[in-house]
């Protein structure tokens, strides 16, 4: 309703929790009324910094609070499913970071509870809300490049996260490439039906010791016949590398890396551009804002979010198939 303000409680005040809290400050019909984190000092600091009235240690207190209409779940992955279920049964609108879980049976349970309770649950895939990637998707939808033949996604981080994080992340495909699997489905408008993966450790042997890889190439087959590739690396020395190319019967559309400025300096000696952004929060600042605005709009209107638990399940299923393909050295059908 006009003039209504969505009162939001945030579970988890780590890096991504703070990103969302910062973003909400600029949304006029939303306010953070409470945060929950077992790290009391961090919760207290966030409340002081952003003028949030209250913090609690136990997330259950936040979910039960009468002055919380919507719950943002920014906790560790292994807590996502249970918190979605509890918030659903409490009648709250829900925004949850990916993935829902690293277990498909648990994700199915979450999907069933969300359906039974009629809860509004949006899964965080901020790249869907990036203006550049929306333009790519629009070109496909409108037929501007004709029948789509191929899609190529490049997604490389400027540097790997701490090995301690990698060890409990679910692996490169479920932690990092899951965004690219969702993007591939979003842009092509089709489900992925087969994956074939090659992966290795090229950057840090400690990542291999933690049971993961840092370099991956995935070949995709889509239900609508499109062929795709996704190239991932945990370390690109030149910055945050985010590029997409879609090729079709009438032409091609591609997106290049965004930089702090888009100037090109050309002299007799060289043609020079500044490096791309070096952090995902800088590259996707606008996407995070549009994503949260969309969640607030859906929560206040009681409308279906653009990416819910079904989309979260689909991307996770592809990520798991990609990891299985790498281990078996064979294509995996979904």
UniProtKB/TrEMBL annotation:
Domain GFO/IDH/MocA-like oxidoreductase: 133-253
Keywords: Oxidoreductase
Gene3D superfamilies from the UniProt entry: Dihydrodipicolinate Reductase, domain 2, NAD(P)-binding Rossmann-like Domain
Oxidoreductase as UniProt keyword: yes
GO molecular function, one term: nucleotide binding
InterPro entries named in the record: Gfo/Idh/MocA-like_OxRdtase_N, GFO_IDH_MocA-like_dom, Myo_inos_IolG, NAD(P)-bd_dom_sf
Entry's family note: Belongs to the Gfo/Idh/MocA family.
Protein name: Gfo/Idh/MocA-like oxidoreductase N-terminal domain-containing protein
Species this chain originates from: Nannochloropsis salina CCMP1776
